[in-house]
Amino acid sequence: MDRLIITLRGTLDLGLKRVFKRREYKYLLNAEEYITIRKLLMGHMSEDQYGLTTILSLYFDTPQYYFINQSMKKVPYKSKFRVRSYGTPLMDEPVFLELKKKIQGVVYKRRLQIPYDALENTLQTGLSCLDHQQLVSNENQIKQEIKWLFDRYDIKPKVLISDDRVALSTDEDPDFRVTFDFNIRFRDEDLSLHHGGYGTKITPDFETIMEVKATGAYPVWFTDIIANLHLVKGRFSKYGYVYQHYLSQTEDNYVTGTV
């Protein structure tokens, strides 16, 4: 467990952001719209150092799918818990425990980084195995919030959703980001992150999700691009879509599996 302490402490040294407060807006693009806006954005933004990345997100819920059903009701407060990795994790590589809340349109995301080989024990103990770790103040608060979720609800891994992502950023505002997600797929069996991002591809009526993440107003140049292309904000939840079109169709949708 000494390495777990080092990893958690190391998040501060690496400058990894643990707490996010921002607004997130989605635009659902066809192929032509994606090509056009990518060309226009490259005059203002650049890809991050990772380029095209496969994102793996393991979503947790109750046996009755309480959290996703609350989310689909469009209540003013919604939350979800997931484990996320950027690419297929090796045993000593990091994964992120993420608690995401949305309150009156504002997204609050808190996350802890742990090595993948500590994930199973961490989840099986409801994060109690971290109680004796020396965490910095906000890490301890995040741990307590996630731990409360495990104590309050009988949450289990339900579905692993993967997609391929390109992220753009700009030097003028590091909190302004644009991401493009493609090729969304899922599986509700074999829920190990270590087995990669294979799965059934979903087929919504668009090609690409463009998500804009901002703490304040859009830059003027970005607002002009959106207006000139006549793009409008949309609503789409990957987990919600998979639940509605696949998981809720099964007779017994209580899904468990290894992580």
Structure explained in plain terms:
The protein has 259 residues and is α+β, with helices and mostly antiparallel strands. 27% of the residues lie in helices and 33% in strands. It is globular. The two termini are 19 Å apart. Mean pLDDT is 87; it is low at 1-15 and 253-258.
Largest sheet: 8 strands, antiparallel, barrel
Helix-and-strand structural type: alpha+beta
Q: What's the oligomerization state?
A: single chain
Distance between the termini: 19 Å
**H/E series:** HEHEEHEEEHHEEEEHH
Relative strand content: 25-35%
Rg measurement, Å: 18 Å
Q: How many H/I helices?
A: 7
Strand order of the largest sheet: 1-6-5-4-3-7-8-10
Shape: globular
Give the fraction of residues assigned to helices.
25-40%
Summed over residues and divided by their number, the pLDDT gives a mean of: 87
Number of strands: 10
Provide the low-confidence segments as ranges: 1-15, 253-258
Which keywords apply here?
single chain, disordered N terminus, alpha+beta, 259 residues, eight-stranded antiparallel barrel
